[in-house]
Amino acid sequence: MKIFIDTANLEDIREIAKWGILEGATTNPTLLSREGKDPEKVLKEICELVPGPVSAEVTSEVAEDMVKEAQKLAKIHKNIVIKIPFTVEGLKAVRALKEEGIKTNVTLVFTPVQALLAAKAGASFVSPFVGRLDDIQANGMEMVEDIITIFENYDIQTEVIVASIRHPMHVLEAALVGAHIATIPPKVIRQMVKHPLTDIGIQRFLEDWKKLNKKG
Ligand code: E4P
């Protein structure tokens, strides 16, 4: 499973990119707006920091306008993937962009059949939102499992990006059900690193090493 970072915060991306674990990034209008900077500049910088696809979302609601916006965003960098919300207009835009050779990531997917339609329209990626489903007492990861089964049944090449991840258990579950990608907020990536027994283990090794040096 590939690991993408789910943020538009350049400091977080800069730091975590150095760990060598990232293979892409996702943004959305909320994440870019939170940074309060020129979104095009931020997206370009993310593309320079992260190897792999970087999702940039359109905000138009009509297919023709989505396509125009996508063409502009695609010029920012060769790694830009256009995020398109799951609507009928979005599906039309995905088809048109596929014909132009522009990759898309269909976002705001909440059911397996939405994912199937997005794949049929030609999406390179689909983004099922697990956390937002869990928030309303539905099972986000069951949706992901069903999408993967459908895609495997019919040899569909669209990649599944597990999105709206809230904690490390979501990452574990995404990997166990065979998701292609998990897009993870910086806070959760940092939580994934930590284990108290690792910290205690290091402390003990260092203390024992110092004892040996004292004896020596
Ligand atoms: C990524 O593609 C999504 O936009 C993001 O994961 C949504 O996360 P949220 O539900 O925490 O806003």
List the topology elements.
Layout: E1 2-6, H1 10-17, E2 25-26, H2 29-35, H3 39-49, E3 54-57, H4 63-74, E4 80-85, H5 88-99, E5 104-109, H6 112-121, E6 125-128, H7 130-135, H8 140-153, E7 159-162, H9 168-176, E8 181-184, H10 186-193, H11 196-215
Parallel strand pairs: 1-2, 1-8, 2-3, 3-4, 4-5, 5-6, 6-7, 7-8
Helix pairs in contact: 1-3, 4-5, 6-8
The structure holds erythose-4-phosphate (E4P).
The low-pLDDT segments are none
From the alpha-carbon coordinates, what is the Rg to the nearest angstrom?
A: 20 Å
Q: What is the terminal separation in angstroms?
A: 47 Å
Principal-axis shape equals globular
The total domain count is 1
Question: What would CATH call the class?
Answer: Alpha Beta
Bound compounds: erythose-4-phosphate
Strand-pairing-aware structural class: alpha/beta
Mean pLDDT: 98
Main sheet properties: 8 strands, parallel, barrel
Number of strands: 8
Provide the CATH superfamily: Aldolase class I
Q: Which sequence of SSEs, written as H and E, runs from N to C?
A: EHEHHEHEHEHEHHEHEHH
Features:
216 residues; alpha/beta; TIM Barrel; 8-stranded parallel beta barrel; 16% strand; globular; binds erythose-4-phosphate
Outline:
The protein has 11 helices and 8 strands. With 216 residues, the chain is of the alpha/beta class.
Q: Can you give a write-up of this model?
A:
The chain has a single domain (2-215), classed as Aldolase class I (TIM Barrel, Alpha-Beta Barrel). The chain has eleven helices and eight strands. It is an alpha/beta fold. Helix 1 packs parallel to helix 3, helix 4 packs across helix 5 (88-99) and helix 6 packs across helix 8 (140-153). Helices cover 54% and strands 16% of the residues. The radius of gyration is 20 Å and the shape is globular. The model has no long low-confidence stretch (mean pLDDT 98). Erythose-4-phosphate (E4P) is lined by residues 6, 26, 28, 107, 127, 129, 131-132, 163-164, 183.
